[in-house]
Specification:
By secondary structure, the chain is an all-alpha fold. Helices cover 71% and strands 0% of the residues. The protein is built from nine helices and no strands. The chain has helices spanning 8-21, 27-34, 38-44, 48-70, 77-88, 92-100, 108-130, 140-159, 168-180.
């Protein structure tokens, strides 16, 4: 990255990108990619695990905000599902980060935060099933897991150059409904 990164949030975004490309990347490599000194990064995040947790917390916050924006009170279930897919596909790298960092499983606060993000999604998927948007009998937790899988797969297709970014949400939505829709 040629532009110097100055905020904690942008350092975390760069860290997520670097750690997705190389799960073993060092703090020095992250600092270099962020355009800051290693000492500066170490002051904010004394260990690699501190950085991983910070990226995970930031990723969960981004997911939570996206879910909140896509599911305002009273949203039509079909429109809400479409909005969720549209909001979450661009966050595919953050979802991948959360799913691929095994050391995060040992962080109970992160696991609880993930559950907090999942609660409104699970509630919404139950409402979508009751409204007939999802196939009868699909458990809300399964619908949420399916949503994450489809979002991740769509983002992966974009990252690999197999799928155009503007086509990804539509394909993800169509696949999601084709798999669990009525």
């Amino acid at each position: 990255m040629s532009v110097q990164v100055r905020t904690a949030k942008s350092v975390l975004a760069v860290a997520a990108e670097v750690l997705l490309r190389d799960a073993t990347a060092s703090l020095a490599q992250v600092a270099a990619a962020a355009g800051i000194g290693r000492t500066t990064l170490h002051k904010r995040y004394p260990t690699r695990q501190h950085l991983l947790v910070a990226v995970a917390e930031d990723s969960l916050e981004l997911l939570d905000r996206a879910v909140g924006a896509a599911l305002p009170a009273g949203v039509d279930p079909a429109a809400g599902l479409r909005g969720l897919v549209d909001a979450l596909v661009p966050l595919g790298p953050r979802l991948e980060f959360l799913l691929r960092q095994p050391s995060l499983d040992a962080e109970p606060e992160l696991l609880e935060r993930w559950k907090q993000v999942d609660r409104p999604l699970t509630r919404f998927m139950g409402e979508a099933a009751e409204a007939g948007v999802l196939r009868p009998g699909v458990a809300p937790w399964w619908a949420v897991s399916s949503l994450y899988a489809v979002v991740y797969t769509a983002w992966e297709g974009v990252a690999e150059g197999k799928l155009a970014p503007l086509d990804a949400p539509r394909l993800a939505y169509d696949t999601l409904l084709g798999g669990i829709g009525t």
